[in-house]
Specification:
The complex is a heterodimer of chains A (296) and B (317). Helices cover 73% and strands 0% of the residues of chain A. Chain A is mainly alpha-helical and 296 residues long. The longest helix of chain A is centred in the middle third of the chain and has 37 residues. Chain A is elongated, with a radius of gyration of 22 Å. Chain B has 317 residues and is mainly α. Chain B is 78% helix and 0% strand. Chain B contains 14 helices and no strands. The chains are: A mainly alpha (296), B mainly alpha (317).
Chain lengths: 296, 317
């Protein structure tokens, strides 16, 4: 909305077609966040082309190396190249984040639509269920379930997906309720419009913006969550280069070399910062009402 | 007012009940036979039968769940699977350390976060405000385990000025506090950033309201307007968040306790998971969940006391 075309270069013209992205990129923090997210996504796609070594190749003649030309971030306790492990790790983080958010979004959307649209008893039951899921701190909920299911990436995805459901369900429910009470919906209903049509034509377009914001804010949450669980040995198992596994390996040898811990820690901080900056700017642009922090 | 409180209390009871049912059912979703999984393939059928009846697992599922809830309500959390010691004792031994850790982190977050937020709100768009904005976001995005590892790397491994593990010598308060510094800072960092932003936002909002302008136009001194009217109202959202904060710190303490090898609820649950000590996992999770729920409830009550409008809105909605 504040987007003003300043030049007619090809990129700018391209961006004009996606006004939201253009508006995000006009803000310095949004542009920074978007660049980090873009680098992360590209790294995920082109990991084998970017990583100079395999993520599991061991070299016992070069353990605990500090950063050098041969090893940009140094090597770990098995002489594995940390840069390559971090690069391949992006794939694990992405393969945890996307399905988990999809699970949360799908079930959250369904429950939210049901609760908001039907109201009454169904609404009450769903709200109590959501409250109960949120009664656990998500980490503790995850631990309780992983304790019995056992550690694996699939289980981590399921658990995080479950923990994300209430967020999406609540946003959907409140939007549905506020849209449903408009007179025009009642008129359309009286004219014989089907429930499906009302949901498709009036409700979904209204909830897309808040959901997109929530997704961009949730992706970094899932990434740190997955890495945290893998750090505790409850998620992805070594030698897979989840950033949590790299941290956990590094932690065991923290007195031998700081580089494994530092490289995984900075990768995590950078990616979460990128997604958060991008998500917050997106929120300011898409829905200024939700924002309370602009100008800072 | 009372109707709102009663409603809120009733909801809390229902949620606690559902949490208990869920935890009672948890053992049922273990793939295969939980007792065999626990005891390993070489256990004799007699041993399996004994353990099964000790854990009430020979009874129908609904009886197991009912027994778990009944016992938990009477303060009986069952016995540790490996040592046979009452879990209540094990939790009693360590709960204090986790509460101290969570409270000290929360205190630290308030002491640092609130003044930073107040400064930013009273000097909006100054260069320090911009720096603080970026710093706060960065702080918020640092997970507690990353902060813990980096702080340990810096202060324990590199400079060697603060201890890396444990609680310190028994009975030595100064040593206990020294061992508390890194864990509580790691846990507080996210919340320093979060509180700074929250206070800034809500204070700016309040400072722009008509009643503050009115108070100023009546000639009240800025200081009085600020502390007596603006800050008090601006801190209301902070109180709710602190309730959530205390609860999530108790949970987040897990990472920090494991990293700094501190006894606490986190290490208790973590070790229990690794030992497949399901009764202890279940009891530990229950205690954390109940404390989390209560912290939220208390924050809500304090909130409705500070701002009577909340009950009206909530009981209507």
């Amino acid at each position: 909305m504040e987007y003003v075309a300043r030049s007619t270069s090809r990129t700018t013209r391209f961006l004009e077609r996606i006004p939201v992205l253009g508006a995000v990129l006009q803000r310095p923090l949004g542009a920074l966040g978007f660049s980090i997210v873009l680098i992360f996504v590209l790294t995920t796609i082109f990991a084998p082309l970017i990583a100079p070594y395999s993520d599991t190749k061991q070299d016992f003649s070069a353990i605990f190396q500090p950063p050098s030309r041969a090893h940009l971030l140094g090597t770990d306790n098995l002489g594995r190249d940390l840069f390559s492990r971090i690069v391949y790790g992006t794939r694990i983080e992405m393969s945890a984040a996307l399905p988990a958010v999809t699970i949360g979004l799908t079930f959250g959307l369904l429950l939210g639509l049901l609760a908001g649209y039907l109201g009454g008893g169904v609404d009450n039951v769903i709200v109590v269920l959501l409250d109960s899921i949120q009664a656990f701190p998500s980490l503790v909920l995850a631990l309780a379930i992983l304790a019995v299911l056992g550690p694996s990436l699939t289980n981590v995805i399921l658990v995080i997906g479950l923990a994300l459901i209430p967020g999406y369900a609540r946003v959907t429910r409140s939007q549905v309720k506020s849209v449903k009470n408009n007179d025009y919906i009642q008129v359309e209903y009286n004219l014989g419009a089907s429930t499906g049509r009302i949901i498709r034509m009036h409700i979904l377009p209204n909830i897309i913006a808040p959901l997109v914001i929530l997704i961009s804010m949730d992706l970094p949450v899932v990434i740190t969550f997955e890495a945290g669980l893998s750090f505790l040995g409850l998620g992805v198992r070594p030698p897979a280069p989840s950033w949590g596994v790299i941290l956990s390996d590094g932690f065991k040898f923290i007195f031998n070399s700081p580089w494994p811990v530092m490289s995984a820690a900075f990768a995590l901080i950078l990616v979460t910062l990128g997604f958060t900056l991008f998500g917050e700017t997106l929120r300011d642009v898409l829905d200024p009402r939700l924002s309370g922090t602009e100008g800072g | 007012m009372y109707i709102y409180l009663l409603k809120r209390l009733g909801m809390t009871m229902i949620v606690i009940l559902i949490v208990m049912i869920f935890l009672g059912l948890l053992v049922q979703i273990i793939p295969g036979d939980p007792v065999r999984t626990l005891l390993g393939p070489r256990a004799t059928p007699e041993l399996v039968a004994t353990v099964r009846s000790e854990m009430d697992m020979d009874k129908p599922v609904y009886v197991q769940v009912a027994l778990f809830i009944w016992n938990a309500l009477h303060g009986n959390l069952g016995n540790d699977f490996w040592t046979g010691r009452p879990i209540r004792q094990a939790i009693g031994d360590v709960l204090g350390h986790t509460i101290i850790l969570a409270l000290s982190s929360l205190g630290l977050a308030v002491i640092l976060g609130v003044p930073l937020g107040v400064y930013s709100a009273t000097h909006p768009n100054s260069w320090l405000d911009h720096i603080l904005a970026v710093t706060s976001i960065s702080f918020i995005t640092i997970p507690s385990y990353v902060a813990a590892l980096l702080l340990m790397l810096l202060f324990s491994v590199h400079f060697r000025i603060l201890p890396a593990i444990g609680l310190g010598k028994a009975g030595d308060v100064a040593d206990y506090l020294r061992h508390l510094i890194l864990p509580s800072v790691s846990l507080a960092i996210t919340w320093v950033g979060y509180l700074a932003r929250l206070v800034r936002t809500s204070l700016l909002e309040v400072l722009n309201t008509n009643y503050i302008r009115a108070a100023k136009s009546f000639g009240l001194r800025d200081r009085i307007v600020f502390y007596k009217y603006a800050l008090k109202n601006a801190l209301i959202p902070t109180v709710t968040v602190l309730g959530v904060g205390l609860g999530s710190m108790m949970a987040g303490a897990m990472f920090v306790e494991v990293i700094f090898d501190r006894p606490g609820m986190g290490t208790l649950i973590y070790n229990a998971i690794n030992d497949r000590n399901y009764p202890t996992v279940r009891a530990g999770v229950l205690v954390i969940a109940v404390l989390f729920i209560l912290a939220n409830l208390i924050a809500d009550f304090i909130n409705s006391w500070l701002d009577p409008r909340i009950q009206l809105v909530k009981s209507q909605g």
